[in-house]
Predict the 3D structure of the following.
Amino acid sequence: MVNKVVATRASGRGVANLAHRSQEHINDNPLLPAIVDGKARFDLESGKYLKLWQGPQHPGITGNMSLELVVCGDEIVECKTHVGYLHRGFEKLMERRKYIQCFPIVCRIAVPEPDFNEYLFAATVEELQGIEVPERALWIRTLNLEMARLASFFMWLGGQAGAFGLGTQGQWTVTMRDYILDRFEELTGGRIYHMYMIPGGVRADFPSGFAGRLRDTMDTCEKTLDDVERTLFHNAVFKKRAKGLGILHPDIIDQFGVTGPNARAAGFARDVRKDQPYLVYDKLDFSVVTHTDSDAYARAWVRLQEMYQSIDLIRQILDRMPTEGPYFTKLPNVLHWRVPAGHTYKKAECTRGEYGYYLNSDGSDKPRRIYVRGPSYTHAMTLMEHLSIGCNIADTAGLMVSLHTYPPEVER
């Protein structure tokens, strides 16, 4: 018998497989952890197990959280997630500020794609206030969200390659993201935080020649994606390490509240843009991308196809959107603005899945309650703890990145 907890890399169940054994048998076996009240207890003094901490390492993406790992050899037998290193209290900050003052705050909740927060907060206010957004503004907003989706995916794609020791693709994808940020700077005046979508529409129309430059950027991005597909998705190292890693069984998709590419890679054709269309998505031609393998490789493949899809959607929007018309509905003095009492919930499909805003107004000049529903909370914490069991410690970063989470969204 070897000193190894019963687990498999593909299933991600690990210690859970011990549940069917009798507690007496497990507690009498020196090679297995003791089971106390249905939970595994690891004797770190025995020398069989070692506790390691991974993170926090970086103020962005997955580095904000820490993983408390117990390993047996090079295999993870227990994982506990720890957050709190970034807590900013975004929701409570907004409840102490006038509505227009909330827009610099919502951007920070998901740094690589702040635009979804801008749109959803604006949409909740518009619904309670009864504001009608002009047609051209709806198209510009949709364009803005697809640009943000593509830029965020480029950042993620480089991180996924880097997590498996492949650095070249990260250099390419960060460059592509910067090109998209150039277009954001033209359109909104800001590269990272835009504060562009506000109640009533958007702050500004296209600058001269913007559409042509955006088309050129999309051509460059598409060519780079072709190179990434050849050098990463057909790379023997990436395929060997990503295939079979972190398999999400279809039975746990709803149980864990999994959405977005993580769910679509398990065969669930769910996308808010299709299921409950908003903005002008019902006027665009696209289909929901799915896979069935439900491992890290499948999740990466789904996201790659959605990047190609976003490039196509941006081209469709530029071809079909009205070239004239208002882009903003005039509002009263926003410093004395009071939103009628009521509550509403609006949602959208961000890069990580269903993203929602709940707004409760008591009729004053400040929100009574703001609640942000982001997919990162489930994916980064409970799902990561579940899938880590039985995983090789060298694959922890690759598994974590494959779930695509933003800790600022968790610690809001």
